[in-house]
């Protein structure tokens, strides 16, 4: 399970770039930026549907694995290398990246369905609620002070990557894995706020690349969802073990 979590750590560690102008900018959200945000969230919803389709394809044909992970990363890199005016091609690559990423977490979703299908629904709704609340908080903030989270969050991702690296080499205990899981959830919930604020500031400066911005939010959403689902699976497994011991 920690392999899924570490995959999203590496994806988010390269996004911590913002300008001094963004940090000192305390403007309200203009109608033009509001329109841009609507396009970003509409694109995000399409990416989530594609991701769900990828997970479904894994359940049908068992296609998820290392190959789909590399395919997802490849689509993202290709997307980021293209100029914004090639919107149709970049949208196709985003949908492809989301499809492959959904297939990559398909084994985790399949495990949840086998154990308890309600866990999957609860995890998704919990992620959507948390994502929506923190995004709304970022958009409604009168000041852009949340952009200062960037330095702290990048440090948090560095800690997570080191913990995963050290666990892989030296062996990790259950307590270290639990800390990595909960701390990672906290970090990526913070990224929802940070990325939303960063998108708003970039849009004020004229960057209306809704495909790239939706990609940032998509990786945040999936990272939070994966961690919530793993936590729920772990708690459910522990409860089942306690019930078995009581029966014995």
Describe the structure.
The chain is an all-alpha fold. 83% of the residues lie in helices and 0% in strands. The chain contains ten helices and no strands. The protein is globular. The two termini are 29 Å apart.
Q: What descriptors fit this protein?
A:
248 residues; mainly alpha; globular
- What is the number of helical segments per DSSP (H or I, 4+ residues)? 10
Overall, the morphology is globular
Mean pLDDT: 84
Beta-strand content estimate: under 5%
Largest sheet: none
Residue ranges: pLDDT <50 for 5 or more in a row? 16-20, 22-26
Coarse structural class: mainly alpha
N-to-C terminal Cα separation, in Å?
Answer: 29 Å
String of helices and strands: HHHHHHHHHH
Condensed summary:
The protein is mostly helical and 248 residues long. It is built from ten helices and no strands.
Topology, please?
Blueprint: H1 2-12, H2 20-23, H3 31-61, H4 66-81, H5 87-104, H6 106-115, H7 117-140, H8 149-170, H9 174-204, H10 210-247
Helix pairs in contact: 1-8, 1-10, 3-5, 3-6, 3-9, 3-10, 4-5, 6-7, 6-10, 7-9, 7-10, 8-9, 9-10
């Amino acid at each position: 399970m920690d392999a899924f979590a570490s995959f999203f750590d590496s994806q988010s560690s390269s996004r911590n770039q913002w300008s001094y102008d963004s940090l000192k900018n305390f403007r309200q959200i203009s109608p033009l930026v509001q329109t841009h945000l609507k396009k970003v969230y509409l694109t995000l919803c399409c990416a989530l549907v594609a991701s769900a389709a990828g997970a479904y394809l894994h359940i049908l044909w068992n296609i998820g694995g290392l190959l789909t992970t590399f395919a997802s990363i490849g689509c993202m890199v290709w997307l980021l290398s293209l100029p914004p005016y090639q919107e149709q091609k970049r949208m196709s690559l985003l949908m492809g990246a989301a499809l492959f990423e959904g297939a990559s977490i398909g084994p985790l979703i399949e495990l949840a369905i086998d154990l308890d299908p309600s866990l999957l629904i609860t995890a998704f709704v919990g992620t959507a609620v948390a994502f929506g609340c923190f995004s709304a908080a970022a958009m409604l903030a009168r000041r852009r002070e949340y952009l200062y989270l960037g330095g702290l969050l990048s440090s948090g991702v560095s800690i997570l990557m080191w913990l995963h690296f050290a666990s892989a080499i030296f062996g990790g205990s259950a307590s270290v894995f639990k800390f990595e899981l909960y701390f990672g959830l906290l970090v990526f919930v913070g990224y929802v706020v940070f990325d939303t604020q960063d998108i708003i500031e970039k849009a004020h400066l004229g960057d209306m690349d809704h495909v790239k911005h939706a990609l940032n939010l998509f990786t945040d959403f999936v990272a939070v969802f994966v961690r919530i689902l793993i936590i729920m699976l772990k708690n459910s497994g522990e409860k089942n073990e306690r019930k078995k011991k009581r029966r014995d």
